[in-house]
Amino acid sequence: MGVVCLLLVSCGYGFRGTTNTLPADIKGVYIPVFLNSTAEPGAEVVFTNALIYEFTRSRMLKVLPESSAQAYIGGKIKRVAVDPVIYATLTQAVERKVTIDLEVSCRRSDNQKILWQDQHLTRYEVYTVTNDPGQTERNKQEAITKIAQNLSERIHNGILENF
After folding, report:
1. N or C: which end of the chain has fewer CB within 10 A?
2. What percentage of the chain reaches a pLDDT higher than 70?
3. How far apart are CA 163 and CA 158, in angstroms?
4. What residues make up the domain containing 15?
5. How do 28-30 and 62-63 pair as beta strands?
6. Which residues pair with 118 in a beta bridge?
7. pLDDT tens, 30-63?
8. How many domains, in total, are found in the chain?
């Protein structure tokens, strides 16, 4: 087992979320509130908070105020689509799918040089539709939160590992 670990480390392999390939002078990032080009209220806050949490959790870079950060991560929610997945009758869905498309970039604060970007980050989650509209909305919000968590991890790893 020790030989396998040594071989993996010596070959340049590492565990996801533990490698930082950004320039050495980048010690902290500023994460402003995402832009929201959709009709989904509050989605920008959910995504911004999830990304801040991901960077705070990993401790690979500090999340800093704009004036102190060497880089910033800007994000835009381009699309939120809700589509039926499973029908109970011809007109009533029992499951819906929420799909979210993002555009995200990480740029240097001093010269705006793009360090990493992905203009087509997409993820979906399926949620249950109930007879209670309030519960259905809570289920949808939970699905959006899961999407935000997943995409934030992908953004974090993409920026730090240049994937």
Report:
1. N
2. 88
3. 5
4. 2-161
5. parallel
6. 104
7. 999 999 999 999 999 999 999 999 999 999 999 9
8. 1
